[in-house]
Amino acid sequence: MTSPLRLGIAGLGTVGAGVLRILQEHPEMLAARAGREITVTAVSARSRGKDRGVALDGYAWEDDAVALARRDDVDVLVELIGGDEGPAKDAVEAALAAGKDVVTANKALLAIHGQALAETAEAAGRVIRFEAAVAGGIPVVKALTEGLAGNEIARVMGVMNGTCNYILTRMEEAGLTYDEAFAEADGLGFLEADPTLDVGGIDAGHKLALLSAIAFGTKVDFEGVELEGIGAVTIEDIRQAADMGYRIKLLGVAQLTGRGLEQRMSPCLVPATSPLGQLQGGTNMVVLEGDAVGQIVLRGAGAGAGPTASAVMADVLDLARGLRLPVFGQPAAGLVAARAARAAIPAPYYLRLALTDKPGALARVAGVLGEAGISIHRMRQYEHGGGTAPVLIVTHRTTRGALEEAFAALPGTRVVQGEPVAIRIEEV
Amino acid sequence: MTSPLRLGIAGLGTVGAGVLRILQEHPEMLAARAGREITVTAVSARSRGKDRGVALDGYAWEDDAVALARRDDVDVLVELIGGDEGPAKDAVEAALAAGKDVVTANKALLAIHGQALAETAEAAGRVIRFEAAVAGGIPVVKALTEGLAGNEIARVMGVMNGTCNYILTRMEEAGLTYDEAFAEADGLGFLEADPTLDVGGIDAGHKLALLSAIAFGTKVDFEGVELEGIGAVTIEDIRQAADMGYRIKLLGVAQLTGRGLEQRMSPCLVPATSPLGQLQGGTNMVVLEGDAVGQIVLRGAGAGAGPTASAVMADVLDLARGLRLPVFGQPAAGLVAARAARAAIPAPYYLRLALTDKPGALARVAGVLGEAGISIHRMRQYEHGGGTAPVLIVTHRTTRGALEEAFAALPGTRVVQGEPVAIRIEEV
């Protein structure tokens, strides 16, 4: 056996405690798999005295994560502090400068500074690993970087924020409004301190940006993710989508097109019978499509101490076993900028309009859609009180440009009340 | 960049041609990911002249796979011949003896000779990789060996023979008998030359034995897999299981218990709403359960040129990138023999009996079950002609021993016609 791999763990929240628990419970199993011992030299967190349900005896303590990262007796910094600036970034940079490898669960840090950090790491011959940053316990970074490395990737999709999926599932199952489901998720402690990270799609957008870089050999480009949260999804849309055979998910989609890389994180309709449509509650799912392999679906817990610690440990074991890859699977210096001017891949859309109850109203709407080049695949009109009737339309594939043209012309028909709703239907 | 990795490919069936196609279509992408060129030095197959839809120009030809494996200008033997004896085994042994690494898709070879081959490889400092041997394009060997390396694995389950799943799906969807669905699968070319490899569960059993070794650190033990094929599954059971909310799958399950390793490959009932239950057609699914990560589900194409070639290329890229692991994730010399005397983990069971239409018949059956310690969770009795009525029973958890005791006592009731059917319900 070679010498032990010595960890310094910065951040002792639930994930940090989970990592320590695995290391303390399974030292022989881990050593057998790694071919060497894995030890913890030192730990660091904000508050030393706090009870974390896990023993810290035998580990040196550092108040300062940067000091931890620089210790001579640490081979790998395990960064579990979080946040895209401050001590997390400082500690990662200090570790790389001091010639240490880094394992991190920090999606925000890498989504925003990933390109610069990867270039720094690779220039120094160091490695940054981040399996835990994307979809919790699902080994999707590994599946994409290594398992599907023989494939030209066509599309990456994912439901990667369990809180959003929980809220949408509760709205459908229990008939809650968005606000009620949000309050329930909050009460269960599912929401980030800043809930817009969850429901605004930012957290999931960070994850998508990281997967895109690996999948397409492009620079991490979180700014290029078209973000739309779930705050505008209504119980009516959930019910009526279900009526048409769909479920609404906060779905991330990344595709490399002739015009560049499109990345979207937005509510989408998916067929209720598809694996994505069947994903209920807080679970995550990632769908990877390659030219040779076809479609691979990965499903598992996207958050929580155990699953996230499992992913951290996968990275630690890879380092212990001597696996050293560029951060995004190929040298960072060779990654290209490829943002598409605007997401434009055609798709079918679900439209919901409130129609005034006048003869010929539907014909006028259909006429407007037709003039914009939008053809109708399916349509339902419901009876309703109050002088308006909801109309649901599923279009054939069309573009957002065509939809905008049609929506601009709809007020002129004088039969549509309020704002029409349009939600993309992702063909899975 | 370091020097190219030079492949020798033995076997040019659909998978071999698929591998060549990837290498020919994506040389730059593969080199960027591998950090070096990947080249093919020589190929070998039975018939040189056959049109395989892929150019062989520029590759040396060997009639003999062993000669290919020994070539000085080959770094890695890619063995795609198949079969657990003969040229496949000879070529792999020759490659290891000549100091080459091996990538293989050969589940039979490794399920039967894996322990010896792994010991040989590791003694020589060589590596055997076999992602393509299990569940086609799904990167499950990697997920288990590396992605979940921080977990003590509790259970591995899988639907890993697409042909069996196709037959069972067609029986349910189209109301075909087993023989009709078998004939349809045969007509579509889905069956192995020896169909008992598929429908007898042997092929899937090979795969389960390989996953068990990785999951539990045990010697590959195909002989220890309790095999039961799908030939005895009837359309009645499929329909009536559906009526109780279940689907029947040829399911592999491996668990390490206090009594040793249990491996079963047999028709099981799973809830129709579970990921395994929703898997229809020829797709594969593997479910991995770890103490930290919880449940991870992987789904994808289990066969076919593209998916299998994708898995072969993942192994080739790992070798090109310098990843070198023991064959089963930890040194073969340290793997333990752990076969349980007999699978004995309790489970609920689905029972189907034909009851004569006499007063008190059901009470007598319930009495026999109760005396064997089997308690009934749900029961349905159907009207039927011919003097007997089918009765379906879902038991609470019980053992096979208790079932055997009850079945031995059933004839004494003189109200049960024919052989009762018992199918395990796997709790997923």
Automatic annotation (TrEMBL), chains A, B:
Positions annotated as active site in the UniProt record: K207
Binding site for L-homoserine: E192
Gene3D superfamilies found in the cross-reference section: 3.30.70.260, Dihydrodipicolinate Reductase, domain 2, NAD(P)-binding Rossmann-like Domain
Chain sites annotated for binding NADPH: K107
Pfam hit, one: NAD_binding_3
PROSITE patterns cross-referenced by the UniProt entry: ACT
EC number annotated for this UniProt entry: 1.1.1.3
Pathway: Amino-acid biosynthesis; L-threonine biosynthesis; L-threonine from L-aspartate: step 3/5; Amino-acid biosynthesis; L-methionine biosynthesis via de novo pathway; L-homoserine from L-aspartate: step 3/3
GO biological process, one term: methionine biosynthetic process
Keywords noted in UniProt: Amino-acid biosynthesis, Methionine biosynthesis, NADP, Oxidoreductase, Threonine biosynthesis
GO molecular function, one term: NADP binding
Keyword field contains NADP: yes
Stated family: Belongs to the homoserine dehydrogenase family.
Protein name as annotated: Homoserine dehydrogenase
